[in-house]
Amino acid sequence: MDIKKPYIIVFEGIDGSGKSTQINIVYELLKEKNVKLLREPGSTEIGDRLRDILKSQKLDPKTQTFLIEASRTHMIEKHLKGFDGIVLLDRYIYSTIAYQGYGFGIDINFLKALNDFAVDIYKPDIVFLFDIEPRAALARLNREKDVFENIEFLEKVREGYLALAREYNFYILDASKTKDEITDFITSILRQHRIF
Ligand SMILES: Nc1ncnc2c1ncn2[C@@H]1O[C@H](COP(=O)(O)OP(=O)(O)OP(=O)(O)O)[C@@H](O)[C@H]1O
Ligand SMILES: [Mg+2]
Question: Cα separation of 138 and 142, whole Å?
Answer without folding.
Answer: 8
